[in-house]
């Protein structure tokens, strides 16, 4: 039976770096955000988003993700409505993907909101990536050319690290790339040794 390893971390923690490194080791990694973006462009989903949030978030028959983000990150209620549209389809997509990779001892599901969406309940083990808040904020500002206020608004919509760590089996402190890769190697070694 293929084990599902959840991989999460707050915005700017470096979970994408970790996911890509795991992928480079030949382990299948499902990137929930990337797949959610594809799913968001399905005609039925575009229609559901338009009916829920109005015409202004749709441009040329696709979702304007920037406008939608600005709308939902200001309101936990609207974010909940968006997740109710997207998450069941992402879960179905992920379940199909796991079936395609059933010959692997374990696969990794990378999701920013693994806990917030309840997806952690479907994982056998969980890895949380953390980094000091100041470093996370600076990383996101550099990456997204955004403001500190906007980053903090997004962080506010995610669980804090302490809450995630309490429910995790492994924790990676991502400060330097080399050290982070060493931590990942140790975790992968443990996972490979426990394939029973």
Question: If you had to describe this structure to a student in words, what would you say it looks like?
Answer:
- This protein is α/β, with parallel strands linked by helices and 196 residues long.
- It has 2 domains: 116 residues, Rossmann fold, CATH 3.40.50.300; 67 residues, P-loop containing nucleotide triphosphate hydrolases (Rossmann fold).
- 55% of the residues lie in helices and 15% in strands.
- The strands form 2 sheets. The chain has a 5-stranded parallel sheet with strand order 2-5-1-6-7, with helices on both faces. The chain has a two-stranded antiparallel ribbon with strand order 3-4.
- Helix 1 crosses helix 9, helix 2 packs across helix 5 and helix 3 runs antiparallel to helix 5.
- The mean pLDDT is 92.
Distance between the termini: 9 Å
Query: Please, how many helices?
Result: 9
Helix content: 40-55%
The fraction of residues assigned to DSSP E strands is 5-15%
Q: Strand pairing plus helix content: what structural class?
A: alpha/beta
Please indicate the count of domains: 2
* CATH superfamily membership of the largest domain: P-loop containing nucleotide triphosphate hydrolases
Report on the biggest sheet: 5 strands, parallel
Q: Fill in the CATH topology of the largest domain.
A: Rossmann fold
What is the top-level CATH class of the largest domain? Alpha Beta
Instruction: Please state the average pLDDT score.
Output: 92
How many β-strands, per DSSP?
7
Cα Rg: 17 Å
- Give the neighbour order of strands across the main sheet: 2-5-1-6-7
Q: In CATH terms, what is the architecture of the largest domain?
A: 3-Layer(aba) Sandwich
Give, in order, the helices and strands. Answer: EHEHHEEHHEEHHHEH
Name the overall outline.
globular
Contiguous runs where pLDDT drops below 50 for at least 5 residues:
none
């Amino acid at each position: 039976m293929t084990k599902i390893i959840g991989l999460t971390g707050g915005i700017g923690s470096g979970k994408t770096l970790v996911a890509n490194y795991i992928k480079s080791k030949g382990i299948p990694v499902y990137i929930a955000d990337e797949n959610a973006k594809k799913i968001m462009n399905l005609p039925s989903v575009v229609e559901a988003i338009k009916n829920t949030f109005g015409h202004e978030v749709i441009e040329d028959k696709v979702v304007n993700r920037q406008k939608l983000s600005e709308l939902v990150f200001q309101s936990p209620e609207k974010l909940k409505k968006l997740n109710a549209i997207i998450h069941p389809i992402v879960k179905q997509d992920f379940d199909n993907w796991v079936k395609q990779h059933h010959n692997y001892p374990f696969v990794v599901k990378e999701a920013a909101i693994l806990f917030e969406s309840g997806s952690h309940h479907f994982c056998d083990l969980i890895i949380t990536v953390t980094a000091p808040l100041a470093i996370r904020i600076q990383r996101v500002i550099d990456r997204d050319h955004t403001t500190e206020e906007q980053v903090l608004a997004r962080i506010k919509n995610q669980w804090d690290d302490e809450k995630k760590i309490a429910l995790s089996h492994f924790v990676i402190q991502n400060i330097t790339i080399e050290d982070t890769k060493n931590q990942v190697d140790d975790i992968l070694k443990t996972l490979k040794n426990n394939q029973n």
